[in-house]
Amino acid sequence: MKTILVLSDTHGSASAFTRVAAKNPKADALIFLGDGCKDLEKVQDALPMPVYPVHGNCDFGALEPGEGLVAFEGVLFYYVHGHQYNVKYSYDDLARNAICRGADVALFGHTHCPDLVQLDKVTLFNPGSAAIPRSGRPTYGRITVEEGKAPVFEHLEMPDYE
Q: Which Pfam families does the UniProt entry name for this protein (predicted)?
């Protein structure tokens, strides 16, 4: 069994990473969905797990890739910021591209709103914004995967909300 943390849209809150890591000390990985790559650079060496980042539309000059694929316990995750697929208007392009890559799950941010949707053959998961939510409090995601079982998705409030 693996636990994956998912953060997006930190927009200047480097402490978001360390607070989430401290709250989840046994997590196996962290996937960062962009708009805060400079925040991640400030704290990445202090994080106790591997980090899989992509850049967002506000990460000017970032060297992180625009998309990624990673597998945990037989589940293939496709992860992007989401702006390149116009996710504020429709999830269709994101789902289609995830399916083309053979992904089981597509992780995305950009909207600053947590969401979990099954579309066609792919699960779409947005953790919300870790710093500037568009509704409610700042959130992050936690996914538990176990070989042969469906992933469990959670939206959680950011610890020690500032």
A: Metallophos_2
